[in-house]
Amino acid sequence: MQSSTTVMTGATAHWLALALLLACGAATEVSQEPAESPYLLVTSSLKIYKMPMTGADSQAALEIIAADNGISAIAFHYRLGYIFWINVRDRCIKRANMDGTNITTLVMGDLSKPADLAVDWIHDKLYWSDSGFKRIEEVDLHTNERRIVVQLDSGSNPVGLAVYPTMEHGVLYWTDSGNRNLQRILNTGTSHAVIHQANCVQPIALKPTRENGVLGRPVYIFHRVRLDQRDQP
């Protein structure tokens, strides 16, 4: 099983993003025996850490990516063995091996405000939301071919992004904090729809689930709130 989530927190918080890696991939190319215990990938905007979830070392964090100022979103591809992250300072998307070696720049140029990442682990595609250019883009992890999946209107602000791939196609979901809604599209660029109007201040992240064999039902939405529960951020 492969799963990931991203947590964006306030400016005073230390941890900015987190990805959950369950090291027991169900894809046919991966051994059914877990390679190692599950662990978390965590970033503090400067570094990426590997943090075991179980055992005596569950409180220990192993630094795997160091000194890359501006890390925001992180994602992973278990079968290919890659970690991906956005560097908002350099406006690029980088890639490394799971152990932090072989760091390369995967996407550079024509990026405005990349916000979140999502991996299609069946078709080997990486997707990202760009709140500056108001669009969702894709890059093929084998050919490096880049493509705009959908160009949104000027009032949009795509932030949180998730993908649920099937053998036929991938389904992309994202939160739009400009229009305060949740949208969906196929990775072919078709069937674009608003599937939920979020009555909250600023939806920023989401997590589709699988229920009764159906992908994306329900979809959990995360949004910013004040601790005093007032409506304004």
TrEMBL record:
SUPFAM superfamilies registered for this protein in UniProt: YWTD domain
Keywords: Lipoprotein, Receptor, Signal
Source organism superkingdom: Eukaryota
UniProt keyword annotation of Signal present: yes
Name of the protein in its database record: Low-density lipoprotein receptor-related protein 4
Species of origin: Geodia barretti
Ranges: LDL-receptor class B repeats: 81-123, 124-167
GO cellular component, one term: plasma membrane
InterPro entries reported for this sequence: 6-blade_b-propeller_TolB-like (IPR011042), Cueball_EGF_LRP_Nidogen (IPR050778), LDLR_classB_rpt (IPR000033)
GO term, biological process aspect, one: canonical Wnt signaling pathway
Signal peptide residue numbers: 1-27
MF term (GO), any: Wnt receptor activity
